From TrEMBL:
Entry keywords, A to Z: Hydrolase
EC numbers on record: 3.4.21.62
Family statement drawn from the similarity comment of this UniProt entry: Belongs to the peptidase S8 family.
Keyword Hydrolase: yes
Gene of this entry: aprN
GO BP: proteolysis
Name the UniProt record assigns to this protein: Subtilisin NAT
Entry keyword Hydrolase: yes
Length: 491
C-alpha cells in the first residue's frame, strides 16, 4: 500500500536507505515533476520516512517535496496540488507534517480534504507545534495528531499501536495524542533518537493506519469505496481504549459537501446552508436514494416513537451506503445507539455540550459585535459582514446559539451555557481579529463591543459606546454599517 509523504523530501541517506517508489517535487508553477535536486541530507521528511518504514515495513513510500529543506516553508497552493495529485493517482494514505494556521488558507485546504474524504483517502496530519489551530489537522475528516505530553514522552518504544491515546472530548479537534520519540538505526549501526514534536508522532500514527488498512483489506472483500474512517480509529486505539461511540462520532459538520435532508421541523433556513442538498419529503424517499455513498441530515423536532422506528428502519435498509448521519435538534438516543451498533459515523448536537472547554481566565481581548433581531436576517447579515471583513484582510469568526446554525457555517454553542467562557475559548482557539456573535449579549457585552439590531426589513440599528456616551446609527445599507464599524474600531 502506498504512503505519500508531503514534506521537504525523503532523501536516501544514512538514516533512510530503502527504496523511494517515486521522488517528486511540486514546482512553483504547480507542475508535478521528478525531483532532480536529490541529496543525502537527513531532512525532516527523511526522518518521517524512516519512522514510517520502521513500523510499516511493507509500505511503498512516495515522496512529494513542497517545502524548502532549510526554511521548511511552502505555500498552500503547493500543498493542495500535492494532495490532488495523490487523489488522481489513487494514493490511499497521505502523511502531512505541515498545514496552515492562516485563515486565508483554510477554505482551499478544507475543500481538497473533503475531496479526499469523498474518495476514501486518509489524511494523517500533525497539529502546529505551538498548539495553534491548524488545517488540515483539526478537520473532522482528517486523522489529526499531536505528541503525547505525559510521562510516556520520556522513553522511546518499539511496539506497534502503543503510545497512542484518544482524546474523546477534545475541543481543538485533535483526537490522537501519540508518542513521538523513536529509536532509529542508522546505516552504520548508530542509534538515532527522534525528538518530541508533532510531526514524528504523526509519522508513527501513519504507519499504524497503514498496517490496519493492509490487514483489513487483505481479509475483507468489501469494495475500497467503503469508507473505513471510524474503523481505523477503533482499530488503532485498540480494545483497551475501546469506545465505539467516540470512534463513530465526527467532531463537526464541515466535511459536508452534499447531503440529503429529512426535515421534521420546517425551521431550516435553506438559503444559508453551507453545503449542497436535496430535500427528502418523507422517510420512504430515503430508501430510494441510488447513491453508492451519501450523507444524511435529519432534523428532529416533535416526533412519535413510530416515526423514529420508521426512520431507523429506512436507515437500516440503506446502511451499506450511508457514510454519515447528522442528527440535528433533540435526537432520540435510540437512533444514536442504532448508528453505533451499525458503525455508522454521525454527528449530533449533544457533542457540542460534551466537548471539554477549558475554564478561561481574563477578558476577551478582541472586538465582539453582537447581532440580535430576526434570526434569518441576522444570519444573512453576519454572512455578508464576514465577507466584507475577509475582503479587507480581517479574520472574522461567526458564533451562534441559534438552532441549526452549525449548518450555516457558524461555530455553534447551545443556549444556557457559559457564553463568556465560550467566547474566550473561541479567541484562544482561532486567534481571530473579531468575533461576530448571534447570541444574547445581556451580561456578556464588554467595553468597546458593538450591538447591531436587525429587523424584519433588514434595517440596522448600530449601538456603540465611546467615552461612556452611547451612540446609535441607523442604516439600511450593509456597506454603510461596515464602514461605521471600521471607523469605530479604528479610533
Amino acid at each position: 500500500m502506498k504512503i505519500a509523504i508531503i514534506d521537504d523530501g525523503v532523501n536516501i541517506s544514512d538514516l533512510y536507505f530503502e527504496k523511494v517508489e517515486q521522488n517528486l517535487i511540486i514546482e512553483d508553477s504547480l507542475e508535478v515533476c521528478e525531483r532532480k535536486d536529490e541529496s543525502n541530507k537527513i531532512s525532516h521528511g527523511t526522518i518521517c520516512g524512516a519512522i514510517i518504514k520502521k513500523y510499516a515495513k511493507e509500505a511503498s513510500i512516495i515522496s512529494i517535496k513542497i517545502l524548502d529543506e532549510i526554511t521548511r516553508k511552502g505555500n498552500v497552493n503547493k500543498l493542495c496540488r500535492a494532495i490532488e495529485w495523490c487523489l488522481e493517482n489513487d494514493i490511499d494514505i497521505i502523511n502531512l507534517s505541515n498545514g496552515s494556521i492562516y485563515y486565508g488558507d483554510f477554505e482551499k485546504l478544507r475543500n481538497v480534504c473533503n475531496k479526499a474524504f469523498d474518495k476514501g483517502a486518509y489524511i494523517i496530519a500533525a497539529k502546529n507545534n505551538n498548539d495553534m489551530f491548524t488545517i488540515p489537522a483539526c478537520l473532522p475528516n482528517v486523522l489529526g495528531v499531536k505528541c503525547e505530553n505525559k510521562s510516556i514522552m520520556n522513553r522511546y518504544f518499539n511496539n506497534i499501536y502503543k503510545g497512542i491515546h484518544m482524546q474523546k472530548k477534545a475541543y481543538d479537534g485533535i483526537e490522537f495524542l501519540v508518542n513521538s520519540m523513536h529509536k532509529l538505526i542508522k546505516k552504520n549501526g548508530d542509534i538515532y533518537i527522534t525528538q518530541r514534536c508533532n510531526s514524528y508522532a504523526n509519522a508513527y500514527f501513519t504507519s499504524c493506519v497503514h498496517n490496519v488498512l493492509e490487514k483489513y483489506r487483505n481479509s475483507n472483500s468489501n469494495d475500497k469505496s467503503r469508507n473505513e474512517f471510524n474503523f481505523i480509529k477503533n482499530a488503532v486505539i485498540g480494545n483497551r481504549l475501546y469506545n465505539r461511540e467516540w470512534c463513530n462520532i465526527l467532531r463537526d459538520v464541515s466535511y459536508l459537501t452534499y447531503g440529503y435532508i429529512l426535515d421534521m421541523s420546517n425551521n431550516l433556513f435553506t438559503n444559508y446552508l453551507f453545503f449542497n442538498f436535496k430535500y427528502l419529503n418523507n422517510y420512504l424517499e430515503l430508501t430510494k436514494i441510488d447513491d453508492k455513498q451519501f450523507d444524511l441530515v435529519i432534523i428532529f423536532n416533535n416526533y412519535s416513537k413510530n416515526e423514529v422506528k420508521n426512520i431507523q428502519n429506512s436507515i437500516n435498509i440503506k446502511r451499506e451506503y450511508i457514510r454519515s448521519v447528522v442528527l440535528c435538534g433533540n435526537a432520540p438516543n435510540k437512533i444514536k445507539r442504532f448508528l453505533n451498533k451499525n458503525n455508522i459515523m454521525f454527528w449530533c448536537e449533544k457533542i457540542c455540550n460534551e466537548l471539554e472547554i477549558k475554564k478561561e481566565n481574563g477578558k476577551v481581548n478582541i472586538p465582539i459585535i453582537f447581532f440580535s433581531g430576526n434570526e434569518k436576517n441576522v444570519i444573512g447579515t453576519i454572512n455578508k459582514i464576514e465577507n466584507l471583513f475577509y475582503s479587507d484582510g480581517y479574520y472574522a469568526i461567526k458564533v451562534s446559539d441559534y438552532n441549526f446554525s452549525y449548518l450555516y457555517g457558524f461555530n455553534y454553542f447551545s443556549k444556557g451555557k457559559e457564553y463568556y467562557n465560550y467566547l474566550k475559548s473561541i479567541e484562544n482557539k482561532y486567534s481571530p481579529d473579531i468575533i461576530l456573535s448571534a447570541m444574547n449579549y445581556n451580561g456578556i457585552k464588554g467595553e468597546g463591543d458593538a450591538i447591531i439590531k436587525v429587523d424584519d426589513n433588514y434595517q440596522y440599528e448600530i449601538i456603540i459606546e465611546k467615552n461612556g456616551v452611547c451612540k446609535k446609527i441607523y442604516t439600511i445599507d450593509i456597506c454603510e454599517m461596515y464602514k461605521s464599524l471600521l471607523n469605530y474600531y479604528s479610533v
